Amino acid sequence: MASQSFSGGGDILADGSRSPVEELARRLRASHGRLAVAESCTGGMLSAALTSAAGSSDYFLGGVVAYHNSAKTALLGVPESLIASEGAVSAAVALSMAEGARERFGAEVGVGITGIAGPGGGMLGKPVGTVWVALSLARISGPVRTSHCLNLPGDRRQVREAAVEQALRLLVELLA
Amino acid sequence: MASQSFSGGGDILADGSRSPVEELARRLRASHGRLAVAESCTGGMLSAALTSAAGSSDYFLGGVVAYHNSAKTALLGVPESLIASEGAVSAAVALSMAEGARERFGAEVGVGITGIAGPGGGMLGKPVGTVWVALSLARISGPVRTSHCLNLPGDRRQVREAAVEQALRLLVELLA
Q1: pLDDT, tens digit, for every residue of B62-80?
Q2: What's the predicted TM-score (pTM) here?
Q3: Domain that holds residue B42
Q4: Is residue B108 in some structural domain?
Q5: A62 lies in some domain
Q6: Cβ–Cβ of A54/B106 closer than 8 Å?
Q7: I want to staple A86 with a disulfide (CB 3.0 to 4.6 A). Which of A92, A134, B72, B167 is the partner?
């Protein structure tokens, strides 16, 4: 399923009086951009935040909560070999999730989140709180892909909430 | 992708001291059952609730937030003709979502939620607060399918939260 190109938000300025969800909604509406998400450690919290606003169906197509690695492959097309070579918590897998979501939902903007919310699961070089957020944006001039490694403090709930906040912030910046 | 059969929770008793998420986790663990969900109006909130507990990857495979009808078809295999004939908010579509989630994730238990959270979207016979929750359980003796129509009071947030609570309660009952 090919996703369509997307012109971006142009010269829309940030407005501190809006929540990140509201600001993102404004930018997606202005750009006729539609969003799809792929979440692992946040487990649906980003989708839940996006759909908390009435009318979000104008710009939010849906999401996949790919909690098991098998779901990342079956539902989003993330290659098993990529998960094996890079690890499930990596820039490459986050990007593959973002692109998988964008393509499978036919959206212009895709987000992928994969990380270690804790309390278990931390490892050498990837402690609890390590979260990769990747964005994939279809533009007429060619796709834009970015990935961001967050190191978030706190317990499981705090890591998950901060990851959602940061993903929203990164999306708003992408569409600036 | 065929899902495996599942023996159910047998004689495990409800324990009022546990939250519905904890009780469901206990029953799924005891039965070696794995869960997949498909959400429309709750927009990821059920998945987020299920993954709030550490260790939820033992029994939660993942979910699809099928916010647009196109996502219900593309990601979950809900027939377009079914949505057209029954409406997106119907027992038949909720069941198709539950079975789609169960099959696509290879789970033993599937849940589908579709409803009208408001403030808009209400119609004759389907006012705001109408939510269908469907469950699909693969048992050795054959699949068990149930659907439940909820009429939930309150605003968008209250309808969504109550739908998640009721879905968890129905899942606990199913695995009794």
Answers
A1: 999 999 999 999 999 999 9
A2: 0.90
A3: 20-174
A4: yes
A5: yes
A6: no
A7: A92
